UniProtKB/TrEMBL annotation, chain B:
<feature type="binding site">
    <location>
        <position position="362"/>
    </location>
    <ligand>
        <name>substrate</name>
    </ligand>
</feature>
<feature type="binding site">
    <location>
        <position position="287"/>
    </location>
    <ligand>
        <name>substrate</name>
    </ligand>
</feature>
<feature type="binding site">
    <location>
        <position position="401"/>
    </location>
    <ligand>
        <name>adenosylcob(III)alamin</name>
    </ligand>
</feature>
<protein>
    <recommendedName>
        <fullName>Putative ethanolamine ammonia-lyase large subunit</fullName>
        <ecNumber>4.3.1.7</ecNumber>
    </recommendedName>
</protein>
<dbReference type="InterPro" id="IPR010628">
    <property type="entry name" value="EutB"/>
</dbReference>
<feature type="binding site">
    <location>
        <position position="295"/>
    </location>
    <ligand>
        <name>adenosylcob(III)alamin</name>
    </ligand>
</feature>
<comment type="pathway">
    <text>Amine and polyamine degradation; ethanolamine degradation.</text>
</comment>
<comment type="subunit">
    <text>The basic unit is a heterodimer which dimerizes to form tetramers. The heterotetramers trimerize; 6 large subunits form a core ring with 6 small subunits projecting outwards.</text>
</comment>
<keyword id="KW-0170">Cobalt</keyword>
<feature type="binding site">
    <location>
        <position position="194"/>
    </location>
    <ligand>
        <name>adenosylcob(III)alamin</name>
    </ligand>
</feature>
<feature type="binding site">
    <location>
        <position position="193"/>
    </location>
    <ligand>
        <name>substrate</name>
    </ligand>
</feature>
<feature type="binding site">
    <location>
        <begin position="160"/>
        <end position="162"/>
    </location>
    <ligand>
        <name>substrate</name>
    </ligand>
</feature>
<dbReference type="GO" id="GO:0008851">
    <property type="term" value="F:ethanolamine ammonia-lyase activity"/>
</dbReference>
<dbReference type="GO" id="GO:0009350">
    <property type="term" value="C:ethanolamine ammonia-lyase complex"/>
</dbReference>
<dbReference type="InterPro" id="IPR013785">
    <property type="entry name" value="Aldolase_TIM"/>
</dbReference>
<feature type="binding site">
    <location>
        <position position="246"/>
    </location>
    <ligand>
        <name>adenosylcob(III)alamin</name>
    </ligand>
</feature>
<dbReference type="GO" id="GO:0046336">
    <property type="term" value="P:ethanolamine catabolic process"/>
</dbReference>
Length: 260, 453
């Protein structure tokens, strides 16, 4: 068996003396988010490099497959509902079912939640429960304060299990909200499983096209921090109320954060 | 179509060729989501049996989207060479399968009937082939193409180097290019997916990679996978592109969703022939993938495998240098797990090669599908045995821009070693001159990106 000699750094790459340009290698490794300069064992990755990759993938899978705990939902005093989806497998295979709520849930929402709010806040596990647990404790109170400051009434926050982005259309329509924001866990990457998006719609109605929706994405400690995100989301919701529009119907200057 | 074409097997009847094709598919969540899949395994096999007894003529005369309504159908139907079709029109789909797997059928015999086939016929036979059938027949077919180098020749396996960067930073794109080249990867194309789809970014990426390729005398081609109109505008302004890229759909409505039509693709092809920096003659690059049409609500009631075949029928019009399916990217609502991804990958490469296009694959997965690196390593081994023209590779399998995983630079060297294969001939000579790869294995200095500083 032949092996490229490596140093002892965690990424395991070619030994200093072996490289024609050690400074060049350092520069390449340090300035790149990609897994570069990782070295090799024959034609395969070094063991440590491979295990690091597997650990990152494991974290991402866990974020997808685990659910937000009941204790978390209770601590934040959220009204909890579920979509037409029955379990995680079905959630992944049937996005259509994750956008609708059962008939009895509609009645339950009417008894539990304030009607006709300016802004209905929805929190949805989406593809990362980790993103919810990591960001919502800071983001939710910040968002509510910021909306208060802008004179917008906030409805009763709802937590949706097995929800898709468009579940906000159904819930917002039922509660007759002027705007709806869905704080939803993004599909995890290998770098972070904590990224959250805020999707927003003016005049929520079932079947509203994607082009009518606004989004602020990449919300996590290493991206747009949750407290800052609260202010940005509130700004966008205020613009939506003022212009009575969302998505591509919003004036260009107010669509600034859509790219995320 | 309709009741005049009622088809049956055992206790099951199928109301149209379209329904029959859909229900004969191996299980795919995308067909279930579209409400087109068989309700049970028994119905699935009944559909396969009824399909196996269907003639090629019946498939020709019942395209899944009507000729008058869909230009993809027109491209496919109008490309059929009638005398060749006349020779095989009476064959059943079972006859076609048994012809393809016959030991006396070689690449030459496949070429002899190819121009008589439509995409629907190719989709149909795929549905009654097992995984090993697909590997066997794919391994018989040799489809070569030439741009700055030659892809697909006997004994070779090529790789796209995909040095994507989340900020389109050209210096970092070139770092990743250095890393890939040091593993011998990059003969199919050095192809970058930009974050920002605009002329400025596309031009910067094309210029950076072009200069690097020139500096190191690398016999390969560059490509920036922005929307085709963005690339065309960049090229008209003088940007150096070796290939023009576009994603394709299998219906006219699907292509409309992608912002393209046949007229635009014709124009792009014409521009590529006149203005690309490569020697050609094959100057186009396409990507496809099962489920793309349904995700844009443009599937026209047709199953995802048949639509995928129609993408290849459209691609063929442009005699592309490379075409690859992106097989696990779209999500679990289309291909649920490693098993469905592997099946779709084998189907797609087989169908592409049977169309006569230079076919490769992005064997990949996102973090919300039930698959991992082992699944795509399996698929890479199967498709290397089958003789796919190329794979996509990214650093350690991790694409930090598109946020998904594919094969790694390391996988390339391992696949060459396992199957005693090597890169495209011109690229092989260059790797040997650079002392990166000799006699089937990486040299001691391979794997060090600073070779190229």
């Amino acid at each position: 068996m032949t092996m490229t000699p490596i140093d002892d750094t965690p990424t395991g790459r070619n030994e200093a003396g072996d490289s024609p340009d050690e400074n060049g290698l350092e520069r390449i490794v340090s300035r790149n988010p990609s897994r570069l300069g990782v070295g090799r064992a024959g034609p395969r990755p070094r063991t440590e490099t491979m295990l690091t990759f597997q650990a990152d993938h494991g974290r991402a899978r866990d974020a997808v497959l685990t659910t937000v705990s009941d204790a978390f939902v209770e601590d934040l005093d959220l009204v909890k509902v579920r979509t037409l989806v029955e379990d995680k497998d079905q959630y992944l295979a049937r996005p259509d079912l994750g956008a609708e709520i059962p008939e009895e849930t509609v009645e339950y929402l009417h008894t539990q939640c304030q009607q006709h709010p300016d802004v209905q806040v929805i929190i949805t596990d989406g593809l990362s429960s980790t993103a919810i647990e990591a960001n919502i404790p800071d983001l939710l109170p910040a968002l509510i304060d910021e909306l208060d400051e802008r004179g917008l009434s906030v409805g009763t926050p709802v937590f949706v299990e097995f929800g898709r982005v468009d579940v906000m259309d159904a819930i917002g329509e039922e509660l007759d909200a002027e705007c709806c924001v869905n704080l939803i866990g993004e599909r995890p990457g290998l770098r972070t499983a904590e990224s959250l998006s805020a999707y927003m719609v003016y005049g929520p109605k079932r079947g509203a096209p994607t082009a009518k929706k606004s989004v602020i994405s990449n919300i996590h400690a290493g991206g747009l921090p949750p407290v800052e995100a609260g202010a940005k989301i509130a700004d966008m919701l205020a613009a939506m109320v003022e212009q009575e529009a969302s998505g591509l119907d919003l004036s260009e200057g107010d669509r600034e954060f859509q790219k995320g | 179509m309709g009741t005049a074409n009622t088809l049956s097997a055992g206790d099951y009847t199928f109301e149209s060729i379209q329904t029959l094709l859909a229900k004969a598919n191996e299980p795919k969540t995308g067909d279930e989501l579209a409400n087109l899949a068989a309700d049970s395994d028994a119905e699935r096999v009944a559909a396969k049996r009824a399909l196996s007894q269907t003639t090629l003529e019946r498939l020709r005369e019942n395209p899944v989207v009507p000729y008058d309504e869909d230009e993809v159908t027109r491209v496919i139907q109008d490309a059929v060479r009638e005398p060749i079709y006349e020779r095989i029109r009476d064959w059943t789909v079972a006859d076609l399968r048994e012809f393809l797997v016959d030991s006396s059928t070689t690449d030459r015999e496949v070429r002899a009937i190819r121009s008589g086939l439509t995409s629907e016929m190719i989709a149909a036979v795929t549905k009654i082939m097992s995984n090993m059938d697909l590997v066997l027949v794919t391994s018989k077919m040799e489809v070569t193409a030439r741009c700055n180098n030659t892809i697909g020749t006997e004994g070779t396996l090529s790789f796209r180097l995909q040095p994507n960067d989340p900020a389109d930073d050209v210096d970092r794109i070139l770092d990743s290019t250095r890393e890939g080249l040091s593993y011998g990867v990059g003969d199919a194309v050095i192809g970058i997916n930009p974050v920002e789809d605009n002329v400025g970014t596309t031009t910067r990426i094309l210029e950076g990679t072009h200069e690097f390729i020139e500096e190191w005398g690398i016999p390969t081609q560059n490509c920036c996978l922005a929307h085709v109109t963005t690339q065309m505008n960049a090229i008209r302004d003088g940007a150096p592109a070796d290939l023009i890229f576009q994603s394709l759909a299998g219906t006219q409505v699907g292509n409309d969703e992608f912002g393209i039509d046949v007229e635009l693709l014709d124009e792009a092809h014409d521009l590529a022939e006149r203005r690309c920096t490569s020697s050609g003659p094959n100057v186009m690059y396409f990507e496809t993938g099962q489920g793309a049409e349904l995700s844009g609500d443009a599937h026209e009631g047709v199953d995802q495998l048949t639509l995928e075949a129609r993408c290849y029928g459209l691609a063929k019009r442009y005699d592309p240098f490379i075409v690859n399916t992106v097989v696990g990217f779209i999500g679990p609502e289309y291909l649920y797990d490693g098993r469905q991804v592997i099946r779709a990958g084998l189907e797609d490469v087989f169908m592409g090669q049977l169309h006569g296009i230079s076919m490769g694959i992005d064997a990949c997965y996102t973090n919300h599908i039930d698959a991992d690196q082992n699944d795509i390593e399996n698929l890479a081994v199967l498709l290397s045995a089958a003789g796919a023209n190329y794979f996509i590779t990214v650093p350690m399998g991790d694409d930090v821009m598109l946020n998904y995983q594919s094969n790694s630079y390391h996988d390339a060297a391992a696949l060459w070693e396992i199957f005693d294969l090597g890169p495209a001939p011109e690229f092989r000579t260059w790797l040997e001159e650079m002392d990166i790869w000799h006699d089937g294995t990486l040299t001691d200095r391979a794997g060090d990106p600073t070779i190229f500083t």
